[in-house]
């Protein structure tokens, strides 16, 4: 008997190494693989859209796209869903191989990233069309300005992804404490809530959860600070940011932020809200439906004031962009103008978990039937700032800030509480400097 | 029975010989292939070789280009030589990730091997419902990692999760398994062992199945204890399978993205960031394509070196 087969003995070292190298290279290669793309009929516009809500949203968006009847020589439009998973790679690969879309939704700062690489077609003519058809005047205040660059409009906003404070009324009643109106009262309320086993600043920074990151920036912005100057230069160490970070550390040290929050996924955070562990905290729109409690106990709070009286929230203006690689720029513009005019249909069918960019949609009964939506439009949208704060113009560097390692490390360092504000901010600044393009 | 007799009996047993039997001799003869046969082999292999070159060769070369340039996924940018490698090798984050990857791999490989070996030996014995037991033991390997990571998260993530609650009820405090950097690192490694031991168990079971039971009978007759049979017969006879499984598991561990990313995302504060997670983040979150691909290249190089070492062990373990 012999345990060694002849086949294995005749397997040469070189052959083995080749196989090993190939096997080892698989993830490396996977990271460089091409994205999928759909072919479109000659002259037709490819519109790529993300799963912004339930599949019903994409069905409706597809219907709108396919209902487009172009005039003159403009091409029709085809609809394709692109998954969020590795979406930047999908877009990049498609653009590099000239098989990308002509028009797309996507990441909040994606248009600026691709503009930096010379791939974006400016939307000035679309804006002109919106001026002619009256939609330009329908934009909510301030939503269009962030997209204006020296060369033109990089993209057109179509929905606002807000971060606002939510609270659970019954927990405040149980703790016998009033809703916070400023940082001092938030700290006091948090201490009272802790006595009944609830957390006064619910957040999370676990796998795939960016609410923690947004909480950090939101508190800086709330205090009149922000990561950038008005001119778009890095300004991490400003006094307002230091103050906000010290305050967040105070919330951690007092147990007002859950000690396990650093590892909370969105599912964990939703469970905290559902299980009446979370009493107050920043979150996205539609929390009651998201956590499965539409009893009316979870509501939007009013903005709170920082120690200097500043009151600001955080907004991500999601946008639709056009690409230079298109069968016809005129066709892209005509389709985008049409699509902007059809957006109301998505809110009419209650498919969106975001604010619209048009005043007229915020006045539709389907929208106003939700008191939380009305409150967000009335109280939060006018004071909302973007990641570009203290500046206003969006840029490609914000993508690195939003999804990058520097902010995530900063957030997790703060949530573990084993640091001081200046040390954490210095590391944050160093991390950003190493990846942000000057 | 003398010790010498026992040793010679074990030696014969390891060679797969019945006591007093004649040996099979070495099978390490290189077969002589005719030119015609070689040509036939060449043409038969050519489609696969072309496919491999297309699937692996081209992306590998393109990745090499990206690792030596300063561009993006769209535009390769300017040639920067080995600057990206220098940048990576001088980064504390790289070495922290490398250290975690090393521990993750050591625990992943040997932890899963030990558990797999123990269970494979257990399954050799006659136990009630052995078949059912075997199927159940395969579940961690079979269940999609997304499902198992969600289940593990549910077990340990919050202070009110099942396992922290048990600890609390036992008066052992409330450990935050995913929020404490050290505990999170341990948890990820334990999770990896849990996911991987069925693979090891199957490899070892297959190796054990090929061992003739008369070998053990011969050893028993020579007076070998169970422990001696295990160390002197079982381990040597499954050595080749063991080394192969170690090579494969090393590659699996070093390249394991989902296990870590889904459970902890690499956190808290990079405590569970491995090289593959760091490479992913560098390319797709920091948009630093060159340095990210450079990390992946360094990983590949390390894997090749480790694999060569283990492959040599396989050759040494050949039974003459």
Automatic annotation (TrEMBL), chain A:
Query: Which InterPro entries would you find in this protein's record?
Result: Bact_solute-bd_prot1 (IPR050490), SBP (IPR006059), TAT_signal (IPR006311)
**Keyword Signal among record annotations:** yes
- Signal peptide residue numbers: 1-30
Arranged from A to Z, the UniProt key words for this protein are: Signal
Gene3D superfamilies assigned:
Periplasmic binding protein-like II
Under the heading Pfam families, the entry gives: SBP_bac_1 (PF01547)
Name under which the protein is recorded: ABC transporter substrate-binding protein
Q: Which organism is it from?
A: Arthrobacter ramosus
Q: What is the lineage of its organism?
A: Bacteria, Bacillati, Actinomycetota, Actinomycetes, Micrococcales
From TrEMBL, chain B:
Cite the entry's keywords alphabetically: Cell membrane, Membrane, Transmembrane, Transmembrane helix, Transport
Report the membrane topology from the UniProt record: Multi-pass membrane protein
Does the keyword Transmembrane helix feature in the UniProt annotation?
Answer: yes
Q: Indicate the principal place this protein occupies in or around the cell.
A: membrane
The record, for SUPFAM superfamilies, names: MetI-like (SSF161098)
* Annotated compartments: Cell membrane
State the protein's name.
Carbohydrate ABC transporter permease
Quote the Gene3D superfamilies the UniProt record gives: MetI-like
Q: Which domain of life is it from?
A: Bacteria
Q: Which family does the entry's similarity section mention? A: Belongs to the binding-protein-dependent transport system permease family.
| Pfam families, per the entry | BPD_transp_1
CDD domains membership: TM_PBP2
Residue span, ABC transmembrane type-1 domain: 98-310
Q: Which InterPro entries match?
A: MetI-like, MetI-like_sf
Q: Which PROSITE patterns match?
A: ABC_TM1 (PS50928)
Source taxonomy lineage?
Bacteria, Bacillati, Actinomycetota, Actinomycetes, Micrococcales
Task: Give the residue ranges for region: Disordered.
Answer: 1-32
Q: Where are the transmembrane segments?
A: 40-61, 100-123, 135-156, 176-195, 243-263, 292-311
